[in-house]
Amino acid sequence: MRKRRSLTALRAFEAVARNRSFTLAAEELIVTRPAVSKQIKLLENELSCTLIDRSSNNIQLTPIGIELYVGLQQAFDLISATMERVSNQARVSQGIKILVERDFASSWLATQIGQFLLQYPGISVEITAEKNGHFRMQEDFDFRIFYGPQGTYQNDSLQEKKLCHWIDLPLCSPEYARTHITSQGFSENTHFLLDKNYNPWDDWFKYTEYENPGITDFGTVFNETTLCLSAAIAGGGITIGDSFLALSAIQAADLVMPYRYGLKSVETYSIYHQKDVKHSTEEDIFENWLFSTISIYQNKVDQYLLKNGITIIDRS
Q1: Is the Cα torsion angle 136, 137, 140, 143 positive or negative in sign?
Q2: What is the pLDDT of residues 109-159, one digit of tens each?
Q3: Which range marks the domain in which residue 23 is found?
Q4: Which SUPFAM superfamilies does this UniProt record tie to the protein (predicted)?
Q5: Is residue 308 located within the same domain as residue 248?
Q6: Distance between CA 199 and CA 197 in Å, rounded?
Q7: Number of domains in the chain
Q8: Residue among 247, 195, 226 at smallest CA distance from 103
């Protein structure tokens, strides 16, 4: 069993040995000179040996004192390095907390975050999904990601940065397209899947040659785009999908683009950070990764749509 030693006495001896002075050691430890002398005397009594030669005015260590001093230096250096490492790990382990709009969180960010964690294994990320625009300002998040017209949510507390736009695309299952969609337009029994939070159908009809059948008067209404996409994949009708959220389903042929027009969104995904709060190193790393990944992905989306004959209409 390891025998306990007085850390106070060991620190006092190490300080005296390093400074070669009781006075300087006392100043460093913020105690009195007699207190330092008392601690070293207690240590010598405990070890049953003399550590400091007191026969001269100058501080001289005995051979045993030199051996103990060298060992203590190594031990204190190890303690210091260990505490620094643990402190760094503790800071990293706190990780990054992000509040993200539900559709973007589940259909895009969740599919990409694994790359970040593999690239930066020492940084943890906590993602909380929320309805668009619900900022939960009473809670502590490093970043918030929502969509809307630029500047909508920026205020005295939040700094906004645009992440990306997207392309609005009419989408349905291959089977539904064969039975309900024609090149001339929509059949009378076409069923529309509508997102009550974001419904760009009127704009889509406005910027294309197709007649608006008044879809807001009938159809199924959901409160999230991903629910509309899921219903469309199941053959429940046609919806407008966000190219960021729907690309994987299009590439997998679960959804098709029956019409050759897509609209560039007037709204954007944006990232928000508290003003006057300096980014941590981990936050800088994450933000740089996010912007880079989104830029690559957005180029991939645009190239895929152009390759497949989709005309992208800029309605801004």
Answers
A1: positive
A2: 999 999 999 999 889 999 999 999 999 988 989 999 999 988 888 777 889
A3: 7-91
A4: Periplasmic binding protein-like II (SSF53850), Winged helix' DNA-binding domain (SSF46785)
A5: yes
A6: 7
A7: 3
A8: 226
